[in-house]
UniProtKB/TrEMBL annotation, chains A, B:
InterPro entries: LpxI (IPR053174), LpxI_C (IPR010415), LpxI_C_sf (IPR043167), LpxI_N (IPR041255). The lineage of its organism: Bacteria, Pseudomonadati, Pseudomonadota, Alphaproteobacteria, Rhodospirillales. Coiled coil: none annotated. This is UDP-2,3-diacylglucosamine pyrophosphatase. It comes from Kiloniella litopenaei. Residues 4-133 form the LpxI N-terminal domain. Residues 139-267 form the LpxI C-terminal domain. It holds the Pfam family LpxI_N.
Amino acid sequence: MSGKLGILAGGGELPRRLIKLCQDTGRDFFVVAFKGQTDNETVMDVEHLWSRLGAAGDIISRLKKEQVTDLIMIGPVKRPSMAELRPDWRALQFFAKIGAKSLGDDGLLKSVVSALETEGFNLLGIDDILHDLLATKEIYGKFSPDAQAQTDIKRGVEVARLMGLADVGQSVVVQQGLVLGIEAIEGTDALIDRCAGLRRDAAGGVLVKLKKPQQERRADLPTIGIETVKRAVKSGLRGIAIEAGGALVVDRDAVVQLANESGLFLIGIEPADYD
Amino acid sequence: MSGKLGILAGGGELPRRLIKLCQDTGRDFFVVAFKGQTDNETVMDVEHLWSRLGAAGDIISRLKKEQVTDLIMIGPVKRPSMAELRPDWRALQFFAKIGAKSLGDDGLLKSVVSALETEGFNLLGIDDILHDLLATKEIYGKFSPDAQAQTDIKRGVEVARLMGLADVGQSVVVQQGLVLGIEAIEGTDALIDRCAGLRRDAAGGVLVKLKKPQQERRADLPTIGIETVKRAVKSGLRGIAIEAGGALVVDRDAVVQLANESGLFLIGIEPADYD
């Protein structure tokens, strides 16, 4: 049996899924919940600490007191401004070391991972524990992209990669060669929703969701689930392309069933195939 | 006096401003209005043709019949899908020649410009006629960006440039190093509006608006005016940075007055200064 697992819980239901797995398998764990990020129900019946994101000193000393050995970051975390973050002394030292340049999503998360490793924790990725979540290169369900959809995926891959270089966004919606929307900080759900009003009168668009080229696998992977498919259908999209090995599919069976019922394709792609 | 001017009129009030100038200076002109793009009031009292965007054959033969020698594209044109475009035979030949690859905004517009030049027309840029619209490198009004705002402009320039390479978007909103939003097809107004709900609890963000690196000056330049400033203020932004020589400021005096009254800075920048 592995050591005690510290769960740094972001929003959504992924943290609860992991907690459930720990309970089912009898693995010891301790949850750090973040104000304004983690759902209340995630920590209702488990040992936990509520903390500000900026309270690095408190968090680290509590994790050590709880004799946590392994750490995992799971669930999306909304990026706060420095003012909201209110970093404590320990966090300030950390920011001073990494510099303001690292405030891009990925730079920051990479630095957090390496700082926690320096403190002696063993950092795990979600897919180290929830093995079957990671997207593979395949067509999920019974619908496939046609030639126009493949062209749209190619365009989406091109744009998403450039966005990745700038360390922003992972998601792009393309319809008939037109880039309808690009994700920044608003999140994929909001991106999909606004594309409902931007779509052209033609076969629907495609959501392309990649991990950033330099993304730290253990910090944050793009995730899709039932909610993503529901919104995509509502916004008139006809497909979703995610990066094989670089995105998580939560509730695979339910996702595939809904996609099939809705006439939506879901495909795991290797971006390099679209060069 | 120059030859007869053909005005390919997009949306908004810029085409009307140009028509007014032609009337005031006694220059002959003929307006092509596009369904779903041009405002009705733009062509109410002037000689014009209503056309689909895709009816290239009709447009070119009418322009020749009207003995138009110079052409100008003015005012934003929403990109249609191929299905909406319904290209005629002449337009299809055109698309066959340039290939589907050119459906990025700028690629398409460049090809349109060169096709019209092949037909013997002299293509003008807005700033060839409306000289004082082009943004210059200066601080407009009485407010200047502080150090944080300059850092945000730098980040915005970096992201906008990468977007330009992908031939999408020209506008980015950055607050405290966070990229709140990136413009795709929705337009700058919609980008600004949605950033109201994304802003962090701290000093407001900055709208950075550049022309794309390879942008055809005569096809479409980013434009700001009173409406842009109003929306920026409403969304809690504290400044706007536009590219000197690469953006238009419509109604300069009114824009500066509103910015001053609202505590907003407006600055014309050379992107290279932020490398």
